[in-house]
Amino acid sequence: MTIKNLFFDLALSKAAGLLGRPGRLLRLAGQLMLVKKPWNLTRQDWQQVRQQLDTSGRLIKAVARRTYTPQSWQPVVTLIAAALYFVNPFDLIPDALLGAGLLDDLSVLTWVFASASAELKRFGDWEKSVSH
Fold first, then answer.
1. What is the residue extent of each domain of the chain?
2. Rounded average pLDDT over 16-43
3. Would the pTM of this model clear 0.70, i.e. be above it?
């Protein structure tokens, strides 16, 4: 399944160019961790999105620091694009339109997390192995 969204397509083209720029990737990962969308994070589904955002931010940092090498670069580029899309308040449906703007972000994130799930799991396993 592919997603058709001009703003995400722009973020995707920009994401590939960021792979060779560790400083920009680290800044993006930091921005991703700081963004607090006004979602009800007590609900399990929102908590799962937040957890996947945090994991994505850590993965982007590890790639930027060259401490983690992904099995495939495509999911990483897609995660970087999702981070760019997520931190940008001006996307397909601006976040200022609270309900619709947040659903827009959620739909993009849900699609990206599903498409990058194998790499996110691999990264999580790697994190556990290096923390012991």
1. 6-131
2. 72
3. yes
